[in-house]
## 1
Amino acid sequence: MKIVAEPGVPQVVVTREFRAPRELLFRAYAEPFLVKRWLGPAELELVVNQLDPRHGGRWRWTHYDKAGKGYAFHGLYHGDPTPERIVQTYEFDHAPGTVYLNLITFDERDGVTTLTQNTVFFAVEDRDRYVAGGMDRGLRASMAKLDELVNRLAEEAR
Amino acid sequence: MKIVAEPGVPQVVVTREFRAPRELLFRAYAEPFLVKRWLGPAELELVVNQLDPRHGGRWRWTHYDKAGKGYAFHGLYHGDPTPERIVQTYEFDHAPGTVYLNLITFDERDGVTTLTQNTVFFAVEDRDRYVAGGMDRGLRASMAKLDELVNRLAEEAR
């Protein structure tokens, strides 16, 4: 997994390769029951409150810690999500007003799909808070679980 | 009017002051009949096809040149627009897939409202195309018409 967060630029770009077709990665992002199986740090439980993957559709999910405290995010899909790309606005309930935009692309070549997550913010300070808030740890855990999930789905499909 | 577009940063920040209360500026952004009176270059006619200023609401407008050729933009509102701030996704029909996010804030002090338009893109190249596509000219014309409009609305309200 590669993370690029350049100084002075309100953006984070994450790339990672998966040995799976992009259709399976897309399903892992678009089907609530699958999202629940990989998204978020290992010690938090995810509840997908809403997930309507179409232009103007809303999404909302909450990460719960062991004490039952919830950390909810929500936003909208811009454009109909496809196995090529997903565009979503994001807002963390604990930081209302700090909105950011996320582009996820799935690029498949010879059975390997490169996932790119491109996130842009209105201010470098917003980006820095996002990175400081455990992004790296959460992403590594999420991507490892996503890898496991799409491999399992690929096996089941064989 | 001040425009900041730093090299290597996928962002444009525009600021301008108006001698009018922010409620009037907000109305000029949120009411289709008023939007039509100021938005866009002087030589193009604006048709507001859709404008639903609430969280998840859609907007769409088309600039028509004298030959009748249309240039349409569309997107979604993230969060309910208020006289403090408006957050919108944007996409130009002639550049499908190039989505960007716009934050407009209205900051009023002593009868003067500072409008800030903060636009972020997924790539510096997208920002550069946006700037090269006549942004400066269009913005200057729009802001001058907006100034005239809010001054007239302020006079009518007296």
## 2
Amino acid sequence: MYTNDMARKMSAAMNKVKMAIKAGGGHTVLSTGITGDDARMAKAVVDAGIKMLEPNHPAVALARGYKGVTTMHEAEQVRYGITVAQMAEVTQGVRNVVGKDIYITTGIPGGFTEILPMPLTDEDFLMMARAGADGLHTHKSSLYDLEELVKKAHKYGLCVDAYIGLPTDLHTFGISAEKPEEVAHLARQMEEIGTDMIGLMTGMSYEGIDAGQIPQVLKERLCAMVEAVKVPTLAEGGINIDNFRAFKDTGVNILVIGTAIDGMAGKAVAAAAREFLNI
Amino acid sequence: MYTNDMARKMSAAMNKVKMAIKAGGGHTVLSTGITGDDARMAKAVVDAGIKMLEPNHPAVALARGYKGVTTMHEAEQVRYGITVAQMAEVTQGVRNVVGKDIYITTGIPGGFTEILPMPLTDEDFLMMARAGADGLHTHKSSLYDLEELVKKAHKYGLCVDAYIGLPTDLHTFGISAEKPEEVAHLARQMEEIGTDMIGLMTGMSYEGIDAGQIPQVLKERLCAMVEAVKVPTLAEGGINIDNFRAFKDTGVNILVIGTAIDGMAGKAVAAAAREFLNI
């Protein structure tokens, strides 16, 4: 299906992930939001120990003030207007400053659940691979779409992380599975078609979860996924300082942090601005 | 030289500056760095009370990891590779999220002291004006270059802020004048050719100044400029929380803050990353 060169590229990339998970005693953090797409902030978190980054197109829509969106909810509606070329530029810039040892997975238009036809061409995958992406961060809503994407991505040496969601999620960020046994079954199917990392959407569509805790039903879903597959697992959505430990306790390998870090950056610059204005 | 429409556009823009200075009792802050070019951070500081923003191309070089630069010193060497179209996109994005009442001055390639020919065309000025810029933040090194730029900018309704530097500055960010009387004379010449705001470079080329204080010689230069002209005045470079009061005491109207705020944002995301990694 893919050349030996590209298999080697992917193996080296997955090795970065495995080393990061090992270094963290079974867990690591995938940093996204402003730390995934702004080279200044990406370097700051990598210098602080982060080993995995995720630039993604809805966050770039926010960074660029695209169509005036200021929230992730709004960004979801317009993200298809960000181009693969823009994401390649962002990815290359982050790669330039963080070096080759950091795993970069990128969210690109066409790789999520789309409301308009967004065909990904061979040139798109080639462009992303050449821009320094190790993989693609994807949110397709069917196994069929995911399998097609995985095949094309692997052809160009790009690993794929893909997600499981709930049918009731406000935004569709993955393939639906409700009960723990359904999650486990789907996770195995995703693994069989070659998905390199499998995640579960754990936020209530950006609304977060009660401080310190995660709901029992979510815990069961996460554990079911973790136990079902051999590939590294991820949890994305609603993860913050308070509930981070509860997430780790499920055994999930990679915890995706975005909005929480963005909020801290925004608070820091706002506090600085107020301090200057009040001197 | 310019149409009535464009004179009205400029008058409305300068009114935003005057209102900001008035609201701050004679002083305001021009926020740049990541708060000037990232729409998320721009909105955060505007919500905190900032009324003036400055997206600029060396900061965008840092944001985009362009050629792998990670410091302002390095960005100075490669900034000519950022395009006017990119700066227009950045400016439009910031304008989209901060609304019409914020003054935006933009640093574009061709508007600084250049080491290669960087001709600015009528289309460039038109593009910036249509992207929502109120003015251009410029660092030409001669009155001749500045006058030419001011004329073209005014034709498209863009105000110009321009700067006075020292012949010994590490990077040339303005027209040279050393003694206070030379600064005063040059500031008047800049005002005569139509410069809308006149500033003094006050940083030791990003190295900062002793905590809480500014050198006597700099104080005299700033005061000479402030007293010489009627247009709003600016101080740029090396301004931080500690010496901010000393700068204000010179009577300068607009204090440009960039690296100081960038540093705080970087520290905030790094601290957040470390916190997550250590749970």
